Amino acid sequence: MKLNPIKLGNSVAFAFLLVHLSFDLLSLIAPGILNFIFTSWFHGFSVRLNILDTYEGFSFAKMVFGLITSVSVAWMIGYGIGFFYNFSQNKPNK
Questions:
Q1: N or C: which end of the chain has fewer CB atoms below 10 A?
Q2: Please, how many CA atoms are within 13 Å of residue 14, restricted to the half-sphere of its CB?
């Protein structure tokens, strides 16, 4: 079976877009829930960075920048998976 790397990249990027937008919405309307989710991913450890001490609240510009860069990276990962999967399938049979 051969994968279409562009379609896989688009699918991964779209899925990540939905996740990213849902987290953006949570940070805007319910930052406590977002913090709860984030903490649960680290098995209850509270992750503190110095930058969090100067958090200025929700920023639309930062949201758009983060959305563009993270979806772009997600697309590249999806494309790379499809490309290398197809590359690994092209080995000649002995």
A1: C
A2: 6
Residue 93 lies inside a defined structural domain of this protein: no
How many structural domains compose the chain?
A: 1
In a domain, 41, yes or no: yes
**Cα gap 51→20, rounded to integer Å:** 20
CA distance 84 to 9: 12
Q: Where in the sequence is the domain holding 82, given as residue range(s)?
A: 5-88
- pLDDT digits 0-9 by tens, 5-15: 999 999 999 99
Regarding pTM above 0.90, the answer is: no
Q: Compute and round to an integer the Cα radius of gyration of the chain.
A: 18
- Whether residue 63 is contained in a domain is answered as yes
